[in-house]
Amino acid sequence: MNELSKYILKKDSIFMPYISLGDPSYDLSIKWAEAISPNCDILELGIPFSDPVADGPVIQKSYKRALDNQIFSMETILETTKKIYEIIQKPIVYITYLNPVISYGLENFFKNAYNSGVRGIVIPDLPFDTKEYLSIFTISQKNNISIINLITPASSKERIKSMKKYSTGFIYYVTSFGVTGSRSDFDSKIEERIKMVKDVLKIPVFAGFGISEAEQAKKISAYSDGIIIGSKIQKIIEEESKDPTLCSLKLSQYTQEIKNSLIVKKNRNYENG
């Protein structure tokens, strides 16, 4: 069991908010993270990318702002991540597409990411059953970083079973079809599906994609191990970042509301991870 898995099992409830690095600047990303920190258990950071196929319009626009406002540099990404980690002292999970990781160099990326506080990574365009996955999985494990697999409402039980030996940290369960973004309705079988995934994989399951309101987070936290929210947070940044003080206040208030809504669960035990 790696560092991220051990950390998760010590927590009674987990909130993993998301921010896009570099939106509208790297310095302000640090400020946003500091505002969110008291209310988060794990922080998810998005690495800007020009073609984010899994993301909805809010996060797509945040990446565009980040890429328009400064020259993309993985070194700057890693340096900013390290500064954030030194402030929040909580695990960081990256979400990134495969191209920036390969372009930087796999060995260097995972080594430097770990040294910057990263303990998990989500790569939406890297299915677990590709030949690229195995080599990347091996390197990530060597550097004590969990590759977080995505499971959707369309994933078959057979496919889920086949990813067990490649599942570490937690599973990112996509609560609805489509891309990221706030929603009012979720798959009617979400509770049944999440319980099935936990039973099959014996690993914590976090729910994300579409959650934006405290009542939604409370309901889903009753049967999931963690709640992930990104688009709502990025919408606050989009609307309020011209006044960083006000933006930080709104981020703090919103994330506190979500964190306070989560249902506390004790004595969780998983064999995998």
Provide structural commentary.
This protein has one domain (3-258): TIM Barrel. It has twelve helices and nine strands. It has helices spanning 3-10, 26-36, 57-69, 74-88, 98-104, 106-115, 131-142, 157-162, 190-201, 214-221, 231-240, 244-261, and strands at residues 14-20, 43-46, 92-95, 118-122, 146-148, 150-151, 171-174, 205-208, 226-229. A nine-stranded parallel sheet has the order 5-4-3-2-1-9-8-7-6, with helices on both faces. α2 (26-36) packs parallel to α12 (244-261) and α10 packs parallel to α12. The model has no long low-confidence stretch (mean pLDDT 93).
Topology:
Layout: H1 3-10, E1 14-20, H2 26-36, E2 43-46, H3 57-69, H4 74-88, E3 92-95, H5 98-104, H6 106-115, E4 118-122, H7 131-142, E5 146-148, E6 150-151, H8 157-162, E7 171-174, H9 190-201, E8 205-208, H10 214-221, E9 226-229, H11 231-240, H12 244-261
Helix pairs in contact: 2-4, 2-12, 10-12, 11-12
Keywords:
globular; about 270 residues; about 50% helix; alpha/beta
Summarize this structure briefly.
The chain is of the alpha/beta class and 273 residues long. The protein has twelve helices and nine strands. Helix 2 packs parallel to helix 12, helix 10 runs parallel beside helix 12 and helix 11 packs antiparallel against helix 12.
Q: Helix segment count?
A: 12
**Order of neighbouring strands in the sheet with most strands:** 5-4-3-2-1-9-8-7-6
Describe the sheet with the most strands. 9 strands, parallel
Question: Helicity, in percent?
Answer: 40-55%
Strand content: 5-15%
Shape: globular
Number of domain modules? 1
CATH architecture: Alpha-Beta Barrel
The CATH first-level class comes to Alpha Beta
Kindly identify the CATH topology: TIM Barrel
Order of helices and strands: HEHEHHEHHEHEEHEHEHEHH
Mean of all residue-level pLDDT scores: 93
First CA to last CA: what distance? Answer: 5 Å
Q: Structural class, from helix and strand content?
A: alpha/beta
Radius of gyration: 17 Å
Supply the CATH superfamily name.
Aldolase class I
β-strand number: 9
Spans of at least 5 consecutive residues with low confidence: none
